[in-house]
Amino acid sequence: MASEQEQAAQEYLEKHRILELMENLISLVLFNKPENPKQFMSEQLELLKKSRHSGTRGPSLFSNNNLDTVFGILDPADRKYISYDQYKHALQTLGVRELNECPDGVNEDKISQDTFKTEAMEGLLKSSETFYKSPS
C-alpha cells in the first residue's frame, strides 16, 4: 500500500504528465543521438514551449517521408490501401495513444495512404500535446 506521500507524488506526475514528457524526450535523444544530449533536451523543451504558445506542431520523430515509408512497407503490392488492422497496429507502434477508431475507409476495410498519414500526424500531435500541455 502506497504512503500518502507516494500517492501525492504519483498524482503530481500524472497531473503534469511528467513521465510522458521524459519518455518522449528520451525517445528523441535516442533517435537523434545528439553530441550534447543535455543541450538537445533543453532545445527540445524550448521548441515544445514555442509550439504550445504558437499552436504549431512540436518536435516529432516522424516526418511525412517516414510515414510514406511505413505505408509502403504495409502495402508492398502497391494496392494504395491497407486494412484497418494494419492501420491500427501501425499507429499504435508509432506511439499514437488515441487513434481514430472510424477513419475514412474503415467500412470497406481500405485505409488510403492519405488517410493513414493524416491520422498518424494528428495522432502523433495529440500524443505530443499530452506531454507538454498540462491541465490548469
TrEMBL record:
InterPro entries membership: DD_EFCAB10 (IPR049760), EF_EFCAB10_C (IPR056587), EFC10 (IPR039879)
Superkingdom assignment: Eukaryota
Pfam families for the chain: EF_EFCAB10_C
Gene3D superfamilies xref list: cAMP-dependent protein kinase regulatory subunit, dimerization-anchoring domain
Stretches assigned to the EFCAB10 C-terminal EF-hand domain: 66-124
CDD domains with a match to the protein in the record: DD_EFCAB10
Name under which the protein is recorded: EFCAB10 C-terminal EF-hand domain-containing protein
Organism the protein comes from: Mugilogobius chulae
